[in-house]
Amino acid sequence: MRRDTFNPAQAQEVAAAFEKHGVDYMFIGKSGAILLGYPGTTQDVDVFPRKSEDNGRRIVRALIDLDFAIDEKLEQEITRGKDFVQVKTGPFDIDLVFVPDGIENYDEAKQRIDFSSGFPVVNITDIIASKRAAGRDRDLIELPLLEAFREVYEKRRL
């Protein structure tokens, strides 16, 4: 059964499959913010994976385990780390963002990783920076809400 709205159960499925296959990744975007407690909705799971051919092959195996259909073209996009890969051939949609706007590089972002939700999530400040750098209308509308959430989130963590 296809699920069209992101929920934490999808994050659990992705995390379990990615762990089984040794994928190096973090949740990012609005789905990452939701895992941190942001009261919003989104249509897909957003993942920021390390860009390497080996990690890409691991992602492909994990997605196949999750019942995604991966054709040769999609496999090549994933293994070469195309900047942005939308995968819509499974039980839910997943976006692989190998080069997110506003984030300098994977290793630096990983140093600021947030595990407070039990998932590897890009730091909320980096999520906001990425949304701001993308500059899409829907992101610009969401920015004030994300910034207000960050204030509450950071106070809660103190």
Could you explain how this protein is built, in words?
The protein is an alpha+beta fold and 158 residues long. It has one domain (8-157): Beta Polymerase, domain 2. The chain is 51% helix and 11% strand. The chain contains seven helices and four strands, in the order H-E-H-E-H-H-E-E-H-H-H. The protein has helices at 8-20, 29-35, 53-65, 72-80, 106-111, 124-134, 137-157; strands spanning 25-27, 44-49, 84-87, 93-97. The protein has a four-stranded mixed β-sheet with strand order 1-2-4-3. Helix 6 (124-134) runs antiparallel to helix 7 (137-157). The radius of gyration is 15 Å and the shape is globular. The termini are far apart.
- CATH topology heading: Beta Polymerase, domain 2
Total helical elements: 7
| Main sheet characteristics | 4 strands, mixed
Please estimate the helix content.
40-55%
Number of strands: 4
The poorly predicted ranges are none
Average pLDDT, all residues: 95
What would the keywords be for this entry?
11% strand, Beta Polymerase, domain 2, alpha+beta, 4 strands, 158 residues, four-stranded mixed sheet, single chain
Q: What's this entry about, in short?
A:
By secondary structure, this protein is an alpha+beta fold.
Helix and strand topology:
Layout: H1 8-20, E1 25-27, H2 29-35, E2 44-49, H3 53-65, H4 72-80, E3 84-87, E4 93-97, H5 106-111, H6 124-134, H7 137-157
Parallel strand pairs: 2-4
Antiparallel strand pairs: 1-2, 3-4
